[in-house]
Amino acid sequence: MPVSTLALNDGTQVPWIAFGTGTALYGKDVEQAVTVAIENGFTHLDGAQMYKNEASSGAAIAASGKLRSELYITTKLQALQPGATPKSALEESLKKLGVDYVDMYLVHIPKQHGSKLKEVWKGMEEAKSAGLTKSIGVSNFTADHLNEILEVATIPPAINQVEAHPYVWKALGPNLAVHKEHNIVTSSYAGLSPLFRGKGGPLDPVTEQIRARLEITRGSPVSEGQVLNKWLKQKGVLVVTTSSKAERIREYLDTENVPDLTAEEIDLIDATGAKLHKRFFVCRS
Ligand code: NDP
After folding, report:
1. Cα dist. 74→28, 110, 194 in Å?
2. Binding of substrate: at which residues (predicted)?
């Protein structure tokens, strides 16, 4: 079954779930992991210059036999070297990935650019105008960072990739308001954190209760990870995840086939998550 897509504010479509090559795969050779992800149905690959593995990701892309148009490739701009621009940095990424363009290019971490954020955004627009990327967006941007670049943007960011799970959802309020106003898709990383990084929190019995209900409704296995990813999907969030296991990769993609959470179940996760504010990453300034 093809992976369903989300519409972006620039008229393009993005697969709702991506296989990431950061976190557990950061700095590693990812050829095997990306190959397994593609073979099992992932079409959206989320990488970054900072992960130092674009070349091995590119090797898997080349060996996959997929047409370029069948894959959606994201990379992210790291801190600029002296004399470099977002466009020249992307040219380096394209060489490593072995492709002519990426689908999405994100400013990875706003604090890496200090007072130059507006200039960097104009550089992102230049990379898009040159045809090196179909879409541009940001990551780890607060509402203030977004408002800063929106002052000069002729192209608004299409997505903002941030840590998103029930323990930070309430705190994301100001971000989500700016996203809504400018039609920016919220993308999540660390979405499964309540299950392991934050295990023992108030959400544990709630996700298990909903999992059990969905499993009975479906008549086949449902995991707690699927409950959390479905919660994000039903909020219109683009999920970025990863796994070292083929079985879990298939489970992530199978999330689409899990019955919907009810409005009450979504509210229950929201309310329970709001009881504990817990962030696991420090990429925001
Ligand atoms: P998730 O929160 O979805 O976690 C995925 C990890 O969870 C995998 O390593 C997997 O391990 C493990 N896992 C899944 N289910 C369970 C379970 N039931 N019990 C225990 N462990 C489980 O995503 P990540 O936080 O890892 O981030 C995914 C991607 O997001 C990164 O690779 C990167 O591309 C991107 N990212 C972006 C950031 C940014 O600044 N823009 C920051 C952080 C991440 P296993 O291998 O065992 O399946």
Report:
1. 18, 17, 25
2. 108
